Amino acid sequence: MKGPITREQVVDGTAMSRRALLQGAGLLLGFALTGASTESVFAAPASRVVENEVTGAFAPNGFIRINPTGDVTLVIPMAEMGQGVYTALSMLLAEELEVKLDQIQVQHAPANDTLYANSFLHIQTTGASSSVRAFWTPLRQAGAVGRNLLIAAAAKRWNVDPATCRAKDGVVFDASGSKRLTYGALAKAAAKLPVPPAANVKLKDPKGFRLIGTRAKRVDSSIKVDGRALYGIDTRLPGMKVAAVAISPVLGGKAKTVDEKAALAVKGVRQVINIDEAVAVVADHFGAAKKGLKAATITWDDGPNGKISNADIVEQLEEESRKPGAVARNDGDAGKALAKAAQRLDAIYQVPFLAHAAMEPMNCTVHLQKHRCDIWVGTQAMALTQSLVVELTGLPKDAIKIHNHLIGGGFGRRLEADGTVLAVKIAKHVDGPVKVIWSREEDIQHDMYRPYYFDRLSAALDAAGKPIAWTHRIAGSSITARYIPSWFKDGVDLDAVECAVGPYALPNIHVDYVRVEPPGVRTTFWRGVGPTHNVFVVESFMDELSHAAKQDPVAYRKELLSHNPRALAVLSLAAEKAGWGSQLPARNGRGISVQFAFGSYLSAVAEVEVAADGSVKVKRIVCAVDCGMCVNPDTIEAQVQGGTIFGLTAALHGSITFKDGRVEQSNFDNYLPMRIDEVPVVETHLIRNAEAPGGIGEAPTAIASAAVTNAIFAATGKRVRSLPIDTDSLKSSS
């Protein structure tokens, strides 16, 4: 991330192109995050959400803008996918700036990797549960600097010491409280003062927080309730056409025959566009486009991947997993300890490909003109999207305008720009704007999937049953080698090996990684990747060790966590709140899991019932969370509930399989989400402290599966080492 824009750059105009029009009537604060956009986070104006620049604001590219009415605009680079990030980040700013939350207006940042790079990922993207973590300090610093400037402007006007003044709710008061000036009245004068370095401004003591840590109402709730909230798929433009697409069912294939005449005979159909990997039918509305696509009766040349099956992929992974991989961690001498073990355990674990199945299917609206390209889309990665469109169109970067929207389900799918690239290819052949919509079937069968992983583990126990060695070999695709090359070091995918040992203290550890790229499959992030498979594997295998040692799974883990008080605390709290050890009916069981992932500590206890026919009912999930400073407890609890259900869906139902190069699943009838009657009670217990915040969006997804499969073992004595759960194997033999 580049350094802050300086006041000198702002004044001489090198940091903005519209200074002459907009300077002088408001306050601009530019820090490590700078830049602005004329685009709203939403496609329609709403309370606390601005669509266009406010006339009279000091500059167009500020991180914070305060206009003469006193409204504060936060230009924010994080996409809202339901995780409440616009509320949380607004709370950080409002706390230090000393304004009420409803005085903050939110406006989405433009695509700009240099200015808006996420400090955890080093690119402008919403992912890795990093929004609050990345902006915890910069946004508070921005608010504190703004407050100090406004107080200084008031003190100068009153000819008093700034230290005698205070700010509250967007107003500066003198020592007596008899004099007061609003932020709007002070903005122009404050803008003329020298901006102090953010690092030199003292931040509030957490004990003095008035907003952070409270259950604040989400700023986007009202427009979602009353229908004003617009997603990418809701885009409507004058003269817009709508396209339905059929993409080659096999990766690398292309259309062989297309009955264009039949498609064009459908009322409302205007064009048939064949771009090799896909065929698009452009029409006046989506219904006509779908009918035209069906009438086109497309046949496909499958290309080189037309014979690939799931069995082929698993066989490749199993074979490669027998070979030593790139070493990710090597403590002590695990091989020597295994050779001398009083007891040795070995296991193979597998997790499948998973689709994202977001409620809002992939869509993108493009208006490609000679000298510019406007794109309306919900994306987690604006700058990446912009760069790929530059390559595709040859237009300069500043001619590519990304109009970002609310996202109706991201989960990592919208970190990828393949949907936008396809839409731009189609738009090249359309005069005017065109909205490209994928059907649910196209969405699921042409997703970029969570990788299939094949894991080999071994552990050595001493005579007392304590683990003295642990080896873990992970074989699977590398997402980071393609997406974040800096995370792929010396043959190790740092994401793929995250949580590969867990938070435990073990004397001898060896973890290695074998990169295996399956043919005919594209992989990407999926509401966490490494932790979503490694926590399942590690916590399941740790459960195996506890039972081999004939010890209670909670007590066994506690002994291995004595060095880690935060992990121990969540483990103990989850067990206590779940009533660990209390009696349950036959074929009912409890299982526990603990993790440190995304900067947060979590432990979950699952209570399940396994029927005689093998069907699994998850009755209750109790989750203890230590994510450091809780910005908005209500949002954290909502994230735990949503993430848990997402993880349980995968554990119970999730699996993408291939036959003849094609994905076999196509819609929610055979790629099942959890039904309402399957959803358990989810309890969340927060441990509050003053530590810097950790991430929470993906953490509960990672922890859910192991807690459930360990509970299944407790209920049936049968160990689950592959997902999704095979209920046939759990049938009662009596």
Name the features.
globular; 3 domains; seven-stranded mixed β-sheet; 734 residues; Aldehyde Oxidoreductase, domain 4; five-stranded mixed β-sheet; single chain; 29 strands; disordered N terminus; alpha+beta
Descriptive report:
This protein is of the alpha+beta class and 734 residues long. The protein folds into 3 domains: 218 residues, Aldehyde Oxidoreductase, domain 4 (2-Layer Sandwich), CATH 3.30.365; 146 residues, Aldehyde Oxidoreductase, domain 4 (2-Layer Sandwich), CATH 3.30.365.10; 324 residues, 2-Layer Sandwich (Aldehyde Oxidoreductase, domain 4), CATH 3.30.365. 29% of the residues lie in helices and 22% in strands. It has a 7-stranded mixed sheet with strand order 10-11-8-18-15-16-17. The protein has a 5-stranded mixed sheet with strand order 13-23-20-19-14, sandwiched between helices. A 4-stranded mixed sheet has the order 1-2-3-4. A hairpin with a 6-residue loop joins strand 6 and strand 7. Helix 3 runs parallel beside helix 5, helix 16 runs parallel beside helix 20 and helix 19 crosses helix 20. The longest helix has 28 residues. The N terminus is likely disordered.
